[in-house]
Structures are given as C-alpha cells and as structure tokens.
Amino acid sequence: MNRSDYAIQAVKGIREVANNGVQESLLEYKDNRVFEFAQSSEVFEIFTSTESLSGTIELGDAETPPLVALEDGYSVTVQEKRFGLGFTINEKTMRRDEGDSTMKVDAFIAENAKQVMTDAVNYFLTESFELLNDAFTGTSYLAPDAAAICATHTWASGGTFANNVTSVLSESAIDTAEEYAGAFQDAGSKPMPMNFDIIIVKKGSAAERTARKLFAESISPVAVGDINLYEGEKTIISTPYITTANKLNWFLRDSRYKNPLRVKIGQMPMMHEPIRLENEAIRTNVTGFFSVACVNIPFSYYGSTGAS
C-alpha cells in the first residue's frame, strides 16, 4: 500500500464519525424556536397560505348552513440550494514523513475534517439566521406578499398590517407591542390577538440585557446549540447569529401559530468518498442541500430595528 492509499483509507475511516458529528451538531438547533427546522426529501416545495373566511349566519330550525371555502392566500414555491466545500491532501504532504507515512496524514486529515465540517455547519446556520438579519431589508428573503419579513404586509384578500417598528427595546416599547398584539385582526377584520411569548435578541447585546431585566432576571438559560433560552415571563432567545451590525434588532413571536420562517434540510452536510486526482493528491468534498424561506404571511412575528 502506497502513501496515497493510506490517505484514502484514513479519510474513509473518519467519514462516518464526521458525518454523524455534523448531524448531531445541527439537530441541537431543532428546538431553536426562531425558525421551523424541518427535514424533507422534496426538492421543490409548494406552500399556500390561508386567510380568513366568513359566512356564519343565524339559522332557522330546519335551515341548512351555508357552505363557505377557506380563502387561499399566496402560493410560494421553494427550491433547495446546494452548498459545500472540500480539502485536498497533496503528494508533498503525504511524503513528509518517510519513516511513518500514516501518522502525519492521519493528523492532517483529522484537523481538516474538523475544520471543514465546522465551517459547513456555520454556513448553514448563518444562512438560516439571514431570515432575521435580512428581516427589515428583504434583500435575501421576502414574505409571500413580496414585502420584507418585517414590513407593511398586504393580505391576498386585501387589507394591510405593519409588523415593523424602530423603537429601542424598553418597557414602553413592549407596551406598544402588546397594544398592537391585542388589536391585531386577520384578513377578514376579525379579532386575532397575538400572544407574543418569545423575544429574540442578539447574544451579549444591550437588547439581551434589557430583555433579561424585563422578563427573566436571575433565570439561568437552557442551551440549544450556542443559543440561550431564558424561560421567564417571555422566553428569551439569545443567539450569536444575529450579526453585530444588527445587534439592536429585536423580535417578538407568537409560538401558537405555525412558524412562517422555514429551514429545511434535504441532505445533511456529508463528507463523500475520497478521490485520487491526476497529480496524486487526494480530494475530499463535503456537500449538503437545504432551503430557507418565509412560507406564510409573517403575522405571528413583530420586529424592531432598535434604531430610535
């Protein structure tokens, strides 16, 4: 067995461990409560939002109730995206130690595999949390009505609502949000009060400190990956994946409703079989498939830039 054969066998030996490690790392975020974390074999997914209906009337003793149809909202088609990266072990690296051809190759492969898989997980989470980082601009992701996730929204059947503000997180800002929540109406102008039981903030930010003072003073967090959850009057979700540029942003969510922000994994990041190249190097690829989208009108979300 030559040195490249040793390298191939070493990669094969670490593949299963690396793949299982990535899967465990990502599944830690399954209960993150920021977005719906789903797995599906579908490459294309189609979602149709539903809106209000009306038609309930007073009936006579023998009268047949009228038939009504649930009004369809917007239709959204979501296609998977492919992502990945790889690393090579060149011939020079494989021949560095003439006395022991496997020792340094094993160490090199282990470190490269660790770094590559860590970067794949970070890419996946960074792209997923772009749903929040892009929530006020709509550059990357839009709601089904073609507005940013936190913006003025238009129901498919008419009528609008705005779930975006600019106030810095404070007691008075929460009062304003709660008043908005109590007065909220659905597409048919029927009362649909929100119960914002979740607040999402940047980990380590002034917004997080304010949220803890308001809702969870002296409460120890529960970790979901590297996200902290403080189960106080409101569940505070403190995440490092809200960027520093957006550290003043804060979001409220009513968890009773199906989450409009959806992250679907088609294939977990996977380390593939090593490939021997023409220059005697060994190449290993890591690829995965996922989709990120806002699949329903985000009425259960309320966001602020914290700018004023």
Explain how this protein is built.
The protein has 308 residues and is an alpha+beta fold. The protein has one domain: phage-related protein like fold (Alpha-Beta Complex). The protein has helices at 3-27, 91-94, 103-128, 130-133, 171-183, 206-215, and strands at residues 36-39, 44-50, 72-79, 81-89, 152-154, 160-162, 164-165, 198-202, 222-224, 227-231, 235-239, 250-253, 261-271, 275-276, 282-294, 301-304. The strands form four sheets. Strands 7-16-12-8-11-10-9 form a seven-stranded mixed sheet, covered by helices on one side. Strands 1, 4, 13, 14 and 15 form a five-stranded mixed sheet that branches. It has a two-stranded antiparallel ribbon with strand order 2-3. Strand 14 (275-276) and strand 15 (282-294) form a beta hairpin. Helix 1 (3-27) packs parallel to helix 3 (103-128). The longest helix is centred in the middle third of the chain and has 26 residues, at 103-128. 34% of the residues are buried. The mean pLDDT is 89.
Keywords:
single chain, 308 residues, alpha+beta, phage-related protein like fold, 7-stranded mixed beta sheet, 5-stranded mixed beta sheet, 6 helices, 16 strands, elongated
Main β-sheet, spatial strand arrangement: 7-16-12-8-11-10-9
Give the N-to-C terminal Cα separation.
68 Å
Uncertain spans: none
Briefly note the structural class of the backbone. alpha+beta
Strand count? 16
Sheet with the most strands, sense and barrel status:
7 strands, mixed
Q: What letter string, H or E per element, gives the SSE order?
A: HEEEEHHHEEEHEHEEEEEEEE
Shape: elongated
Let me know the average pLDDT: 89
Question: What is the CATH first-level class name?
Answer: Alpha Beta
**Count of all domains:** 1
The percent of residues in helical segments reads: 25-40%
The CATH architecture assignment turns out to be: Alpha-Beta Complex
User: Which band does the percent of strand residues land in?
Assistant: 25-35%
Radius of gyration: 25 Å
Which topology does CATH recognise? phage-related protein like fold
Number of helices: 6
